[in-house]
Amino acid sequence: MFDLLIEYAPRLLSGAVMTLKLTFISVLIAAMLALPLALVRRSGSRYLQGPVRLYISFFRGTPLLAQLFLVYYGSGQFRPELTELGLWWFFRDPFYCAILTFSLNSAAYQTEILRGGLQAVSRQEVEAGMAIGMSKGLLYRKIILPHAYRIAFPALGNEIILMLKGSAIASVITLLDLMGHTRRVFSQTFDMSVYVWAALIYLLVTTLFVLVWRRMEHRMTRHFRAPVTPSAPLTSVIKESTRVS
User: How far is CA 167 from the centre of its chain?
Assistant: First the structure.
């Protein structure tokens, strides 16, 4: 078991790097899409909300694997049109197709998470900002968005973890991420222990991410925790009460 790890460790580590690259590029792109979409979801316009709701319903209601197949294999049905538009170089590459699919999927979830955070911002704080003459843009920058992201921060961390684990399906479109290398090593050795090592690598990466995310959350909310002052010793309290009496 350990001999297999020593022999194939470079491949597994290379796959882990690809998995991290897929995850964090996708999550970053999704984060840039999620904020404007969440603001649209919060707006009162039905014409703007309709397409966004349809998009969110599709990507949250269908399997990620089906979405990946639609983008990677489905785009091949439109090769002449994509070639004419100069986009075939993008859709023929499994890495770019995986990034596109994961970004759109994660953006749908992050949009709903942020929408919940925006709705949870205290109305009194917004009214206080308006009372001192803040413009709408300043209200969002100074009050609404900071509080919304703080509220949504734990849920956003969970979404990143889910995307990290869900990215394993990228191996089905010949992408050599961690699971892709694991499947290739298994096909050569027929040793099931390689899946154990892959699972442990996923567990290690996830655990490290959770620790870092919790540390960031702790720093973000430090001003909500009142400083703990040591209580006065009992003997000093007794002396003080005796002196008063």
Answer: 12
Please tell me the distance from the alpha carbon of residue 163 to that of residue 23, in angstroms, as a whole number.
Answer: 6
CB 67 within 8 A of CB 166: no
**What homologous superfamily is domain 2-244 in, according to CATH?**
MetI-like (1.10.3720.10)
For residues 178 and 227, the model is more confident at: 178
So where are the chain's domains? 2-244
Q: pLDDT (tens digit, 9 = 90+) per residue, 172-216? A: 998 999 999 999 999 988 888 899 999 999 999 999 999 999 999
Q: Who's near 160: CB < 8 A, 6+ residues apart?
A: 23, 27, 209, 213
CA distances (Å), origin 138, targets 84, 133, 209: 44, 10, 32
